[in-house]
UniProtKB/TrEMBL annotation:
The lineage of its organism: Bacteria, Bacillati, Actinomycetota, Actinomycetes, Kitasatosporales. It comes from the Bacteria. CDD domains: FN3 (cd00063), GH18_chitinase_D-like (cd02871). This is chitinase. Residues 173-254 form the Fibronectin type-III domain. Keywords: Carbohydrate metabolism, Glycosidase, Hydrolase, Polysaccharide degradation, Signal. InterPro entries: CenC_carb-bd (IPR003305), Chitinase_II/V-like_cat (IPR011583), FN3_dom (IPR003961), FN3_sf (IPR036116), Galactose-bd-like_sf (IPR008979), GH (IPR017853), Glyco_hydro18_cat (IPR001223), Glyco_hydro_18_chit_AS (IPR001579). Residues 1-30 form the signal peptide. The keyword Metal-binding does not apply. Residues 265-598 form the GH18 domain. It is an enzyme of class 3 (hydrolase).
Amino acid sequence: MNRSRPAVALLTAVALAVPAITALSSAAEAADAELARNGGFEAGLDGWTCTAARSVTSPVRSGSSALEATPAGNDHAQCSQTVTVRPDSQYTLSGYVRGAYVYLGASGTGTTDVSTWTQSAPDWQRLGTTFRTGASTTRVTIYTHGWYGTGAYQADDISLLGPGGSTGVPPATPTGLKAGAPSATSVALSWSAASGATSYALYRDGVKTQTVNGTSAVVTGLSASMAYTFQVAGVNDAGESAKSAAVTVTTAASGGGGPSDLPAHALVGYLHASFANGAGYTRLADVPDSWDVIDLAFGEPTTTTSGDIRFTRCPVTECPNVESDADFKAAIKAKQAAGKKVLISIGGQNGQVQLTTAAARDTFVSSVSKIIDTYGLDGLDVDFEGHSLSLNADDTDFRNPRTPVIVNLISALRTLKARYGSGFVLTMAPETFFVQMGHQFYGTGKWGGQDPRCGAYLPVIHALRDDLTLLHVQDYNSGPIMGLDNQYHSMGGADFHTAMTDMLLTGFPVAGDAGAVFPPLRPDQVAIGMPASTNAGNGYVPPAEVVKTLSCLTERTGCGSYAPHGTWPALRGLMTWSINWDRFAGGEFQRTFDGYFG
């Protein structure tokens, strides 16, 4: 869609057309059926597929509820609904809106798709248009949306009048659901065919996770030693059947994804090893014993696309108390002897890494290996930020990536894992924009125009999930992110961390596609990334909110307004930026972790 605002002349033309719509005879309207489901939003968002939207009780035009949605960034906050219609038939679409640049329209008509809009509606304004379906059209999508950067809008009493389609009846409820012997991460399910079903919706713990055409499915991405409840429903054009009787499966115990000698609950921190900044330099030997994984920040490329990673220790001019190379290497060995893991972290805010070619990939592997071997490190942390990862326009499936920078990174990390063996520690620290935002948007999107970096870490995480030791998403310096409850969550409290972590442990549809679900990670693979102090980054939360987050996710107690989809006592722990900033702030973050898990 072109993001330039429409000409006012078009608005005038639309406004002139509205009286003709309202002049439909009462006899014609009486013959029509109301086809929009929950057009007044009295049942919340039931029947609608929305982004950045919620049901509100004020302002409303009629009844007790209305829709409110807020465009942000590349999202124009659309709510849509697909309706069954008759071929070669006339329909009238109307609704009431408030706000600036609000649209109402229909797509998939089979003839000419239509829309109408208002430039400014300080109070409820009626929008309306008509269309005729094509000779073979049986389904039409109606929608409303705002415009980029223009603020919240409201909609109410959306109506589609016309002859109803021949919908038939929903299928029968499937029976005979059973599970095969589960592995640590997957289970095979099968069931009997249901009369009238053209496909089947699979539910895990009450959440729809995938749709299949046959009477069996293999569910992957499960966590070891966890209980899951499955149900299946039949689907056809008329809707879904009731859910089947439930089957509960407990997955097998398993290792994998990293060394087994990490503690059950680990504290991960970044150590400013190549610079000082306001937190000052901390010698590796002076890092408190509470820190289980120490990420040396940072290894950076010689150029963005070279793949040649160099690790330069902080110079004495910037860090007067920096230790010698010999003392630094001795401190690494001492930490390892105490059971700690010391990694090189690649990237950071200033270290843009783009492996655009096979040559850059091979250089990455050799240069990172040299750093690991020189200092005797335990592994690698991937902290690619900024423009390191983005998706080509034709790269739309996180399960089968095509973009060179993604494919080459996956190949490089697999090579490093194979070179160093099962004890190699592989961690990742993406920002929420590259992971959880993929629930709404993935790459440039179906119509283009979205940020190609959105969700770009998902194919890397997915491809390496069996090799990944820890994923600790940076739950800071983040904009609002939509959770699995279809509500936006913002930094500053436990609910944000709970919602973001729940997405990783429950899994989520990518770009809202129920057929493309990012499977959950094991809880022992997940740590929650938080700033250590107010100086460390936006999104700091005080110790009470940290404890509230951990209690909700591991014990399901003390939860706020967000209810997670499970309880994960095996959650690995916490990550913070940074050890230096925590020490600068008196060790508050470290003490909070020790107090909860100690």
